[in-house]
Design brief:
Blueprint: E1 8-10, E2 13-17, H1 18-25, H2 29-38, E3 49-52, H3 54-64, E4 76-79, H4 81-91, H5 94-108, H6 122-159, H7 167-182, H8 186-201, H9 205-215, H10 223-229, H11 233-250
Antiparallel strand pairs: 1-2, 2-4, 3-4
């Protein structure tokens, strides 16, 4: 369980120091730095991280009063939500994925703040109510538009896979699409899928497959075959779809 994090912001968005990220993911600063150096071309400043040094770093530390030892770093790296996702993907441990989900829900997702209007005059209360109604309508319209765009994007992704066969074929095609987007081998892509599936459904896919194979005395069993036999292909498609969209979002 993660301890309560000190809230740190840069450019009006929440970020984490390397120390905070390492502690949350159950690793150390050296491993975070290695991940960054090994995959530097995937990390984009302003999107996945911010780097501060010199006077800019000094002023930032004085303003935020970070209490985790980050002031000793020559360059202060601040990781955005998308940067944290790339590190979780690189570490690929249960603790890192679990911590990432908690960070998204409890840290990066800024909670809506409510304004206490009980002491406002009736006139100001009327304008406040009108303002909230307009803001609520704009927010709902924006969310609806984003949802429609997201659905269209996902449908376009699936349509571009050019699959006419069953769900097993579609799943294979989606994993190939993911492998191409990540620039990795097909086997590694399946490994990533298994890790994401295990995290999403709190299970151990490899163990389940082995037990099923032993129970039914099967000489061989592929992952798509197993998922089909136990009616979990729709769940697998959802996981693969999220993987593809995360690759697109990170690019």
């Amino acid at each position: 369980m993660m301890t309560k994090l000190q809230v740190i912001e840069q450019n009006n968005q929440r970020v984490l120091t390397t120390n905070q990220l390492a502690e949350s993911y159950g690793t150390d600063n050296r491993r975070i730095s290695e991940n960054f150096n090994r995959n530097e071309k995937r990390f984009k400043e302003g999107k996945h991280f911010y780097s501060l040094q010199g006077q800019e770093k000094h002023e930032f530390l004085n303003h935020t009063q970070i209490a985790d030892g980050s002031k000793n770093a020559q360059i202060l790296y601040l990781w955005t939500e998308k940067g944290a996702w790339l590190h979780a993907k690189s570490l690929n441990t249960d603790q890192a994925w679990d911590a990432y989900e908690m960070l998204v829900d409890d840290y990066y997702e800024v909670k809506n703040q409510t304004l206490n209007t009980s002491q406002l005059s009736p006139e100001l209360q009327m304008f406040d109510g009108l303002f909230k109604a307009v803001a609520k309508n704009e927010l709902e319209t924006k969310e609806l538009k984003q949802e429609q765009e997201s659905i269209k994007h996902r449908l376009d992704n699936i349509d571009s896979l050019d699959t006419v066969g069953d769900l097993q074929q579609r799943l294979n095609a989606m994993i190939r699409r993911y492998a191409q987007g990540e620039g990795i081998g097909f086997g590694q892509a399946w490994h990533d899928f298994r890790a994401n599936f295990n995290t999403a459904y709190r299970t151990n896919l490899k163990l389940l497959m082995n037990n099923y194979q032993d129970k039914h005395n099967l000489k061989s069993l592929t992952m798509p075959q197993y998922l089909s036999l136990v009616d979990r292909l729709p769940d697998a498609i959802r996981v693969a779809d999220k993987m593809i969209n995360r690759v697109d979002d990170a690019s």
